[in-house]
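To close the section, here is one more complete example, presented without commentary so you can practise reading it yourself. The ligand is adenosine-5'-diphosphate.
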Amino acid sequence: MIVLKFGGTSVGSVSNLKRVIDIVDQYVKSDNVIVVVSALGGITDLLLEAGHKAQTKDIEYKTSLSKIKDRHSDVLTALLPNKSTSVDSFVQKSFTDLELLLDGIFLINELSVKTQDRLLSFGELLSSFIIAEIFINRGYDAICKNSQELILTDNSYTSAQVNFEISNKNIAKYFNSNKHKINVLPGFIAKSESGESTTLGRGGSDYTAAIIASALNVSELFIWTDVSGMYTANPKIVKNASPIKNISYQEAMELSHFGAKVLYPPTIQPALKTNIPIHIKNTTRPDDFGTIISNEEINNQNAIRGISNVSDVALLTLQGSGMIGIPGFSKRLFETLSREKINVILITQASSEHSICVGINQGFADKAKKAIDNAFDYEIKTEKIDPLIVEMDLSIIAIVGDPMKDHQGISGKMFSALGRNNISVRAIAQGASEKNISAVIKGNDSEKCLNILHERFFESKSKSLNIFIAGVGNVGERLVEQFNKQHDFLKTRSKLNVNIIGLSNSKKMIFDKSGIDLNNWKKLLQSGERATVNGFYEKVRTYNLRNSIFVDVTANPDVANFYKNYLSNSIGVVACNKIACSGSLDYYKDLKSTALKFNASFFYETNVGAGLPVLNTLNNLVLSGDKILSIHAVLSGSLNFIFNSFNEDISFHDVVREAAKEGYTEPDPRIDLSGVDVARKILILARESGFDLELEEIENVPFLSESGLKSKDVSEFYESLKNDEEHYQNLFVKAKEKGCRLKYVASYSGGKARVALEEIEPGHPFFNLEGKDNIVMFYTDRYPDQPMIIKGAGAGAEVTASGLFADIIRTGNQ
Ligand code: ADP
Ligand code: ASP
Ligand code: MG
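Output:
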């Protein structure tokens, strides 16, 4: 004899039911089978919905009822087209009884737990009857047996306690005298001694199957569901979770107790007692191995078997100086909770005995508060203890593994990973058996937390980065393309899984939690939602994904003003926008310390020299103890291009136009030609060297003509260039006469910075600087005479994008 349990999704659709038939058919060839079934997927929820609507006098319960009828009728039509009238009349009678019950609830607007259990029993009664008929109809020796006639419970409705002595006898007796090939039984439902319908708790069909399996001491229990086993974490939340091949009863019990819904926690007890292996399998992928839960020795080096979480948790804290050293407080607390039938998920007590914390399902929080405050009324009135503190909307995350007790540093690893990602932990509990460590965290951190811990314990060599990019102009577009091209390479070569989750231009923004389709992003963006700087930030924040990085590829001051918000939510910032780092010294310092405090990366290599490793090199010098003495640099690719192309044969106006056309200048070329852009760069270099400086303190020697400096807009500026050609030619000729070339030079020395157009003599390292190249010379304690020189392309969309790319990858190595 073998027991197969099929869950709601397995029997929830015609196509899945066909798979169930095929699976059962395989087993029937060699053994008699007991098939325990849940209600058709979603029916239990619909029954509850109908009941609650009826109870609140909402006539819409009729709509829920129609949905329930339709779902069953669809299955009947597809799989039992020539059903007998007896089948039809059973189903119709069940529908009528159900309707009468709901009408009754509506009439008296009351839904007691007793009535609720009766209401829910319709789901499994109908599914088991229909599924048995499907087998009979296909010529199998099949029968439907109502498990309510076998499993006896007390009358704690909604999660009744099984009377094993009587139930085991009933089950053994029935199956000893009834030998059918296929025996279909409803899961989840039972009966009390007084003959009322009871249920074993949501998800309880697993339990029914285990009760029957252990009463008959069968060789194996199969739980067929919609996933390929018990996973290292809920696969619906953690994309990289994988099925656990072998797991012990205790580990499976811990995981399911802490939320691994794939197995209803009480299921393990009967199987453990009789040592029956539980095999979890996927109905839609029957060839997948699945998970075997047993007592077998497990050959796996990993200290952790899995991670699970329980959401909607309330934390109750009972505290007060009157508790210290006086026994009996905890006993009274737990007796009170037990009397109210409130299940305790987690307990922690500080060693001072000054307080005790208990985690429960938050649906029971009000009830618990009333009962506990009432039970400790005297102590509260006499101020020995405080009224119960209730915190809502929490989650419990648990890491589970038998081998944990033999490995050191597991909790250190767990809490440092959480700390680094700025997850605050409300309470911690470690089971005495050292099979689990659990932490209470904020509910909306739980998805992030599961992924962080999964990455830490199961994907130690790989890391996911979740990228949000604002600005998809020239540079941003290249950046997106580079990620599209390199995605697979990064995954295999650097174990980095980089996904772009959000994209925005000034008008629209789009998001996709599982990664935007980068082959189609332009089209998707066109039909995105309206973009605002704050709206984008709010989205990134509420997604709350681990390793989130905001990338600023705009030149927008409003965007730069949001960096602090990102950083203080532990969201990394990578910027090519230089406004923040060249803004007020206070803001710059504030951003750096916020990044440190919240463990967030803040990189802006492309602020100076585009893709050249200028800031990184400078930082390495400073960090290793070198001292920067002076800096001399040509930092504007656009100005270098302009002065390299300008001569007596071409007008200054035309050269600037050409540079703008090639994308070497800002859209407003005055930002480059006024020297402001270069001033910002030398300011950043000075600050990164450790010197406090403001933009206004930088000496800016203008080379533009009077009218160029005063121009009110871009077209007026171009006009001035045309008119003042002589002024520019003069600059050129004067330099040429001395054999010099014009270069726009930024320098820093002794606390002073300056930007100016300079005449550079032959032999100087700047003299032969080509095209739009940049050059930076650092004179330091270690490089006092021969400077450290960095030289190369300092402008252009492709190199700037690759600088951003490098910064983003760097956040992954933090
Ligand atoms: P059934 O209807 O077959 O009883 P359930 O919905 O009760 O199925 O349980 C299966 C679901 O359990 C999966 O779809 C998955 O979302 C959830 N789940 C939670 N934690 C885990 C885990 N660690 N491994 C597998 N599934 C899990
Ligand atoms: N149908 C019940 C529920 O949805 C029992 C089960 O599926 O195991 O909770
Ligand atoms: Mg289930």
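Once you have examined the tokens, check your reading against these statements. The chain has a mean pLDDT of 93. Residues 7-8, 38-39, 44, 123, 187-188, 202-206 surround aspartic acid (ligand 2) (CB under 6 Å).
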